[in-house]
Amino acid sequence: MRNFVASSLLSLSFFLAAGVASAQEISVAAASDLSFAMPDLAAGFQKQTGIKVNATFGSSGNFFSQIQHGAPFDIFFSADVDYPRKLDAAGFCEPGTLYEYATGKIVVWAAKDSPLDIARLGWKALLDSRVQRIAIANPAHAPYGRAAVAALKSAGILAQVRSKLVYGENISQTAQFVQSGNAQIGILALSIALSPTMQQGRRWEIPDDSYPLLIQAAVVLKSSKAKNEAKKFLDFIKSAAGREILDKYGFRRPPRN
Amino acid sequence: MQSLWLSLKLASFVAAILLAVATPLAYWLAFTRTRAKFLFESVVALPLVLPPTVLGFYLLVTLGSRGVLGKLWLALFGHTLAFTFEGLVIASCVYSAPFAVQPLINSFESIDKKLLAASAVLGASRWRTFWRVIAPLALPGFITAAVLSFAHTLGEFGVVLMVGGDLPGITQTASIEIYDRVQSLQYAAANHLALVLLVIAFVVLSAVYAMNRKALSPWTAR
After folding, report:
1. What is the pTM of this model?
2. What distance in Å separates the CA atoms of residue B198 and residue B156, rounded to the nearest whole number?
3. How many domains is chain A partitioned into structurally?
4. Which of A95, A157, A159, B213 is the most buried (most CB within 10 A)?
């Protein structure tokens, strides 16, 4: 009798624990430039709270459309601040959760074996005759693409290089174009350039004053079924541990935060 | 409308090239008696199974300056195939190949073998037999192959997205432009283009299927 009570109490507690554990998951829609930072953030958060983070990566514009049509995400990390603001205005966001988590940086990047010494040449590298194709993200819907075009314009070389530009659907695909050798040079997100696979390449940080500040914001979604857990994740991002991981991948602290 | 024209151009080129390339391949596969036939048929059908984006990605790598084909092309022409119309044609041919080869194999295989034997006995060479006996009887198969590869390429998205680079007038096909418009929240323009693409595709397909009926009659003995 005692054994029966003990074993049933034990199994009951396992079920309870399992039940509680399975509710502890959030799904994150993250812009592609977070492809490498997000797994680190998720790991740190899970270690601290036990809540699992399932991240989906893509272009901010894509997520913006999907969320408006009921995509079941709990929290949205955009590569800009406009998409979250528009979602907020349209009533898709949990009030008061919009948080500017970083400013993005763009760099000129070439593969390790490229003959161009980008760090020394800077913008001139793009004008080199050996550069036939320059990959940038599509400025029509990718924030990093818009920043790239703005920087090229302010450097005064947009007209000259326009015929050499090829457009990636998102910043990850842009990186793929350069890495596979189909484009000789690309304007990529610093976070991607600092990732393990791209670290070895040559890069030049484009001066801050050549493009508008790329403020990036995150927001908890109203349709979320795990709002508390999502808010906890935002708290983690704001904390010192989260900040450290973001810094490691080149995401600077935004001016107001 | 530039993207629409590009889509139609791409689909036409691919259908034409595939008809030329798929016919000898289908002929061999239909009439060979090698035991390894099933392996070759599987290889030909592979693009059907692979997701277009996966296919597109591996093409990107192969066509890039680090890939085998890419290095060759680079040496011959001074640039890589990605982001060019020619690159799209090649990628689409790989992607739509099963749609051309399979109908042709079926058509060839369904021809009464007695007719082929009769042709041989009457002294016709294999070449002559093909043009005078096989091809006319397999006409529905040719039409199906052409229509399917045309239609399949018209609707292609994943492969073009991976190797195209979205260049207006060069690699920005209609399906890519629709996607771009949706991404930039220009829903009205996207709807408009999608509708036009649908109507054009429907008209082309209807015309070809209507012709197919007429093509059948001279050759079937009823």
Report:
1. 0.78
2. 13
3. 2
4. A157
